[in-house]
Amino acid sequence: MLRDADIDPSALTGKRVAIIGYGNQGRAQALNLKDSGIDVVVGLRGGSGSAFEAEAAGLSIALVEDAVASADVTMMLAPDEIHCALYRAIEPHLRTGAAVGFSHGLSVRFEFVKPRADLDLFLVAPKGPGTALRSLYQDGRGMIALWAVERDASGHAREIALAYGQAIGCGRAGLIPSSFAEEAEADLFNEQAVVWGAVPEILIAGFETLVAGGVRPEVAYLECVGELKLIAELIEARGIAGMREAISNTAELGAFLGGRRIVDSSVRTRMTEILTEVRAGRFAAQLREEEESGYRRLEQARADAQRSAVEATFRELRQVDD
């Protein structure tokens, strides 16, 4: 793990960085770069609704092609599934010998993009959402990130990657070496099989089981969903073993007896299946198909989630309007 003291920031001295995409990561990284004294421009499509927001934050903006043409480093922070078309549009404008960076290894690992041979390719992937990356930076702290170099055409890609990670604040917490393939595969696996996929489904299943058993929805929600923040904070502070030591004997014994009945060998087998499918490119293909369909499945899933009993209970408890 490398930290600020191990990194030479001069690799970005006098260089301009173009941030392509002003979403969750794009906004945070652009603002952190600006506050670190980096010359940064945000590349946006004509008529983008983000233009006013970016300018109001004190950032320079330009059309995507112009931003890329003016930059020594271009950071691809638009949604992964549009990288293919986006990269084709910007490649003619990339300077010879420029560096192209990513915060997710997916589009390189699964060949959504195939950058030309003279370009450096690097990865700096903060391990958390952009909102947290920004707030940590403003608090004088940082977020752990993975970094990698896929191609070192200039001989300086490593230095550029590390200087970039430092400039967005990740060197304060630590930069861990990885690869595009490892980061992409591990991240996609986690999204499907663990934190973003399995955990919410377990919360919903627990809520529905209690309600079906006669427990009032408010109580079921507080027990099965409301305590998630507590366990997350304990794990962050103490680790999993430390979390178990911090809870009551009743909770610890219940977790020991019940947890492995839920997460049994069949669950682990399905997790292995998901990892195999990710590595084979099945999810990458599904992602492109979803974008081409206009996000039909995602739009339906979002609508269904809003109509669910667990969301109705959340709104009631938190007094959130529909």
From TrEMBL:
Cofactor(s), by name: Mg(2+)
MF annotations from Gene Ontology: ketol-acid reductoisomerase activity
Binding site for Mg(2+) 2: 187, 223, 227
UniProt keyword Amino-acid biosynthesis, yes or no: yes
UniProt domain KARI C-terminal knotted: residue ranges: 179-322
Keyword Magnesium in record: yes
Location of the KARI N-terminal Rossmann domain: 1-178
Binding-site residues for Mg(2+) 1, renumbered to this chain: 187, 191
List of residues binding substrate: 248
Involved pathway(s): Amino-acid biosynthesis; L-valine biosynthesis; L-valine from pyruvate: step 2/4; Amino-acid biosynthesis; L-isoleucine biosynthesis; L-isoleucine from 2-oxobutanoate: step 2/4
Biological role stated in the UniProt entry: Involved in the biosynthesis of branched-chain amino acids (BCAA). Catalyzes an alkyl-migration followed by a ketol-acid reduction of (S)-2-acetolactate (S2AL) to yield (R)-2,3-dihydroxy-isovalerate. In the isomerase reaction, S2AL is rearranged via a Mg-dependent methyl migration to produce 3-hydroxy-3-methyl-2-ketobutyrate (HMKB). In the reductase reaction, this 2-ketoacid undergoes a metal-dependent reduction by NADPH to yield (R)-2,3-dihydroxy-isovalerate.
Protein name: Ketol-acid reductoisomerase
Taxon lineage: Bacteria, Pseudomonadati, Pseudomonadota, Alphaproteobacteria, Sphingomonadales
Underlying gene: ilvC
